[in-house]
Design brief:
Strand content: under 5%
Helix content: 55-70%
Order of helices and strands: HEEHHHHHHHHHHHH
Length: 331
Amino acid sequence: MAAMNTPAPPAQTVPPRGLRADDRTDGPARGASPAPGPASAPPGTPARPGRGPRRPGVWRGAVLALAGVYFLGPLLASFVFTVHVPGRGITFEAYSELLSADGFTESLLLSLGLAAATIALSLLLAVPALVAVRIGSPRLRPVVEVMCMLPLVVPPIALVTGISTVLRWGPEHLSRTPLYQTFIAVQNEKFPVVLVLAYTVLALPFVYRSLDAGLRAVDVPTLVEAARSCGASWPYVVLRVLLPNLRASLAGAAFLTLALVLGEFTIASLLGFRPFAVWIVSISGAQARMSVAVSILSLLITWLLLIALSRAGTTPSTAAAAPATTSRKES
């Protein structure tokens, strides 16, 4: 009877085969999610006070302030030089005499005309070539890229030396041919076409890079195939389908070309022409304050034109209006 009343020892649970010793602890069950803590805070939870991320606004403001001092400091010093005359105080004679200066209007209009012609010729050459390479011959893209980048390797002084040699050689050897008049016409001082050709060569690298970036961002084959399947001609595809999608790239190419033409001095000076940059240098010896005033004015004109081009590149194109339909009321 005593043996029957003896309590049995507690049964020992045998862990399954393969269970590790660290899994047999009294901790939370395996697979259960851990208690939420600082390391497992859900996304969007504000950080602890005092340990927040560094604010980039302070560094951004410091960089912008340094850039403003670096770029606007010389301009401010130049403006003070033009309006402050020792012994006379503040005067704006340099700016009042600017518009009546000999050659100011002619040189400025000449530079703007050369810039417009260079932009038109560069885009007329680059856009069809890059579209054709993008659609029909992608393997020729490295060849076109190398050809367009060559002006960055050739110095402007070497380019103008070659141009002047050709211009001297032409009239001497082609005086009895119709090409003689062509050589004379491209050197007309009122509008030197030879400068347009030279500036187009110099602007090709910038135009190519801008247009190539725009074409890479647009699915050109799909747009062309969709337009052609609807019966559109190739001029219509280029003018009404591709160019609106390349508005920002075209504005960027025109932006860079305009800045290049308005500031170019070497080629125009060595060829004997007098656009705006050459005119500024020519009056700098006799009238220093006026030349600095003209430089400031040219920067303002360039900035205004570039802002206009950038706004034109970011303005969305207006969609074509749908044809109106009339409805009749049934009585």
